Amino acid sequence: MSVIEKTRVEFEPVKPEVGSIVRAERAALFDPEVVRQCREMLNDRVVLVFPKVNFTDAEQLAFTDLLGGRLNLTSDATTDKQEDVYQVTLDKKINRAPEYVLGTFFWHMDGLPVETAPPAATLLSARKLAPKGGQTEFSNTLAAYEHLPEAEKAALDDLRVVHTVAASLRPIADLIPEADKGKLQIGVPKEHPLVRTRKDGRKSLVIGSTADTVVGMEVAHGRALLARLVEWAGQPAFTYRHEWQDGDFVIWDNRTAMHRVIPYDSDCGRMMHRTSIAAED
Ligand SMILES: [Fe+2]
Known about the structure:
Elements: E1 4-6, E2 9-13, E3 20-24, H1 32-45, E4 47-50, H2 57-67, E5 70-71, E6 86-88, H3 99-102, E7 121-128, E8 136-140, H4 141-146, H5 150-156, E9 160-163, H6 165-169, E10 190-193, E11 195-197, E12 203-205, E13 211-214, H7 219-233, E14 239-242, E15 249-253, E16 257-261, E17 271-277
Parallel strand pairs: 3-4
Antiparallel strand pairs: 1-2, 2-3, 4-15, 5-17, 6-17, 7-15, 7-17, 8-14, 8-16, 9-10, 9-13, 11-12
The protein binds fe (ii) ion.
Fe (ii) ion is lined by residues 104, 108, 110, 259.
């Protein structure tokens, strides 16, 4: 695959179906034309990696604002110092609700149980790496959908799925103290189409750990279908595992990518700073 050269920025594919590395001068990342090219590439490649750019929070927010409409997906349970920047960490001194971060060990899309439409993108800066584990994996759910047999696509196209926080915490629900069980019930369940159709006609699966039930289907049947689709989308051809280095900045289209983190030690101090782009349609 050839390297695509554009003004002041180059995009180098990582895998045939997913991911590109962005090569640009640091200052060029704040050029609206460069950001526009990043958006275009994100649409197609789903994940963009900016190696070692070492953004400050202010720079990350500035880039976020150039990319789209900023969404506050922070949590009251964290001691976020900068508005709209969520500190992703298992450190109990900073995050009083680390179970939500344990939930990120499982394939998911951000914001589905709390937003009426999937947030458009997530942006993540590496601030402190885990010595072991902590890689982030991404799955391109455009490619996953497009490679399904035609008959199966047709069977999925009109289905709707209820997303809940409780579903996303189900694998670790027995670890949550009895007094905190109320956390499983936060928010109002949100319904999203199982198959999302973009303006350009391309379709993707909207799936992951928050997907609880399929509307109109027996619960067990629906959950089996959802689990099978996540397994399908998680196969190596559709996924990319990012090995973080200090200062890396990675962004992904949250409407067409699932992500998860490889487990890491709760006490290792791993810290990522996350910003989000709001739904656009
Ligand atoms: Fe996430």
